[in-house]
Specification:
The complex is a heterodimer of chains A (290) and B (324). Chain A is mainly α. Chain A has a single domain, classed as Orthogonal Bundle (ABC transporter involved in vitamin B12 uptake, BtuC). Chain A has eleven helices and two strands. In chain A, helix 2 runs antiparallel to helix 3. Helix content of chain B is 77%, strand content 2%. Chain B has 14 helices and four strands. In chain B, the strands form two sheets. In chain B, strands 1-4 form a two-stranded antiparallel sheet. A two-stranded antiparallel ribbon of chain B has the order 2-3. Classes of the chains: A mainly alpha (290), B mainly alpha (324). Chains A and B meet through helix 3, helix 4, helix 9 and helix 11 of A and helix 5, helix 11 and helix 13 of B.
Chain lengths: 290, 324
């Protein structure tokens, strides 16, 4: 029993890192604009689906297909910002209208993917096809190492971007006070587009990393987006590092729910954690970012 | 200086609204006489009128947000389906029990959820819709999972049942009419004025002595009741229920209807429900294209005509000014 629990905690950490990446995507957009982008799941789904399409339709090797997919998804993030968010933003729409519009965009992307690619679930080959490592009797497969390693690199890269590049600092300035940032000559609207590109790219990375261990299909986006949102809430909305920790917490909790309650309770457990946090501690574990 | 434009725009707006209502009425009359497949479309429109009217009370009147009212439709619908198809209950008794169940759930859920605001409220309600969907999928012994429940008996009381397509349509139109009338009654009552006051400014409403939290909960429960009734009507009219019926596309669809018809207006839900049900049918498109069209239409409406068809005349006037 102990082995089983430890093993599922390990796999929970892997899935949780993915939730964390998606959660960070929520935070990046929220910090730059105060918008909660409910189409975040579409990016995750597109990342996996486009990589698969690149490999099977164009015969590209995995790394090339993955990079291509991330670039295309980042561009689609900018397109979402330009076509859907920007007009509403300029008119000063309410938060609710923004949520509704991005949720509708999620459905549109989902249905377009269904029409273009069909409803067959797809999967990607594991990145390193070797038998799992044995450490203290625990099996650690290489995809887990890829997920944890890539997440760590992405987070370190983001931290560096926000702390030491001019663009990153400008984005942080926007999150503190948009008006003041604009007065300093920061192109706030361009920062918004950049935030969507960054967030979409993060989603695509998460989608590509998780697909070899699960599968992807046109409709996987919403569950991933919900998990990412829960991760962001648990971490205190708007704190990227908190979102990542929240993601791992959620992943582990889900893994334990599967062991003790059965696989059917995976999503119910996640949603219950969300409601629990919303009711008891809506500012998250670390407290609110603002 | 632009006063005449506004007045003429308003006049034309009334004209456009009457025209649309006339078209809708003509369509209903034509379908009723001609019969056939379009009757099923109108069944759908009537049921959604009830559902969207409930949503309108909570969102249009009271200014709150719910992405999870499909949960209450599912509770009402599944209670009706299980009790009548599996246990042979009378549809009316089953429906009333479903309604009571949905009200109880709305009370228990609403109490903590309605303290939330903004995107927290949006996400919490979305989560409730997804939890109920998940339960419908996983509770195999009662709901038969994805397979769904078939063989649900038609509407009726005791030995008297409504089975003909036209009979069902008349019944559903009466229910939809009652839903609209009751919404109009609520809007004019002390209750409705309290809802609108809370939507305008919670602080101001509180200063006037309105117990905002209580009224929000009441609005939530009333709208849940409409949703549960719509759910029960649906399973009896179609004779089949599966979790997909009450999925996320239902939420987007009902919001599209609400926005097309005009959020916050009493008659809007009916107009939106008829137009949105009929339009895709006239193109005879596939299911996949339908959801795509609803989503895209909703985005366009939110961007260009945020007050639904009511804002069309303004757009027209603006366009004229630009052209001139």
């Amino acid at each position: 029993m102990f082995d089983l629990v430890a093993q599922s905690i390990l796999s929970g950490i892997g899935v949780g890192a993915i939730y964390g990446l998606i959660g960070i995507g929520f935070c990046v957009i929220y910090n730059a604009s105060g918008i909660v982008n409910f189409a975040q799941g579409a990016f995750v789904m597109l990342g996996g689906m486009l990589t698969h399409a690149g490999m099977t339709k164009l015969g590209l090797p995995l790394p090339l297909a993955a990079i291509g997919a991330i670039a295309i998804v980042a561009l689609s993030g900018v397109a979402l910002e330009r076509i859907v968010v920007r007009p509403l933003w300029n008119r000063g729409s309410t938060m609710f209208v923004m949520i509704l519009a991005t949720l509708a965009a999620q459905i549109v992307v989902e249905r377009l993917t269904l029409i273009a690619a069909g409803d067959q679930p797809r999967t990607l080959p594991v990145f390193t096809d070797l038998p799992p490592l044995r450490v203290f009797g625990f099996a650690i497969n290489f995809q887990f190492l890829w997920i944890v390693g890539c997440s760590a690199i992405v987070i370190a890269g983001l931290a560096l971007f926000f702390s030491s590049t001019k663009t990153g600092k400008a984005m942080r300035a926007c999150s503190i006070n948009r008006d003041a940032a604009a007065l300093q000559g920061i192109p706030v609207s361009r920062m918004l587009a950049l935030a969507f590109a960054l967030s979409a790219g993060l989603g695509a990375v998460a989608g590509i990393l998780i697909t070899p261990t699960q599968y992807t299909a046109f409709n996987v986006g919403v569950p991933f987006a919900i998990s990412g949102f829960i991760a962001a809430i648990v971490g205190g909305f708007g704190r990227p590092l908190g979102a990542f920790m929240g993601g791992i917490l959620l992943g582990v909790a889900q893994a334990l729910a599967i062991v003790f309650l059965g696989a059917a309770f995976k999503n119910v457990a996640a949603l219950s954690i969300l409601l629990l946090f919303l009711f008891v501690r809506p500012t998250g574990l670390l407290g609110s970012a603002k | 200086m632009n006063l005449p434009t506004i007045i003429s725009a308003k006049g034309r707006g009334n004209l456009a609204a009457w025209l649309l209502w006339g078209l809708a009425a003509a369509f209903v009359a034509y379908t009723f006489v001609a019969g056939g497949y379009l009757i099923a479309v109108l069944h759908f429109a009537c049921i959604y009128t009830v559902f969207v009217t409930g949503l309108n009370i909570f969102m249009g009147f009271t200014g709150q947000v719910s992405f999870g009212h499909n949960a209450f439709a599912a509770i009402g619908g599944y209670t009706s389906a299980v009790l009548t198809a599996t246990y042979g209950w009378d549809p009316l008794t089953a429906g009333v029990l479903g309604l009571a169940g949905a009200l109880l759930c709305a009370l228990i859920i609403g109490y903590p959820v309605l303290r939330l605001r903004g995107h927290y409220l949006a996400m919490a309600t979305l989560a409730i819709g997804l939890i109920v969907y998940e339960v419908a999928v996983q509770w195999d012994s009662v709901t038969h999972g994805y397979m769904g429940i078939s063989g649900i008996p038609p509407l009726g009381i005791g030995r008297f049942t409504v089975t003909s397509d036209r009979g069902i349509l008349i019944f559903l139109m009466i229910v939809a009419g009652l839903a609209l009338l009751s919404a109009a009654g609520i809007r004019r009552s002390r209750l409705g004025r309290a809802f609108v006051a809370a939507a305008g400014s919670e602080d101001a409403a509180r200063a006037l002595g309105i117990d905002v939290a209580r009224y929000k909960l009441i609005a939530f429960m009333i709208s849940a009741a409409y949703a549960a009734i719509a759910g029960s009507l649906f399973v009896h009219a179609v004779g089949f229920v599966s979790p997909e019926v009450f999925g996320l596309p239902m939420v987007v669809l009902s919001f599209t209807m609400l926005y097309v018809g005009g959020i916050g207006t009493v008659g809007g839900p009916a107009l939106g429900a008829i137009i949105i049900s009929v339009l895709p049918e006239s193109f005879r498109t596939f299911k996949d294209y339908q959801d795509l069209a609803y989503g895209a239409a909703l985005i366009v409406i939110l961007i260009y005509a945020p007050r639904g068809l009511a804002s069309l005349p303004e757009l027209w006037a603006k366009w004229r000014r630009r052209a001139a």
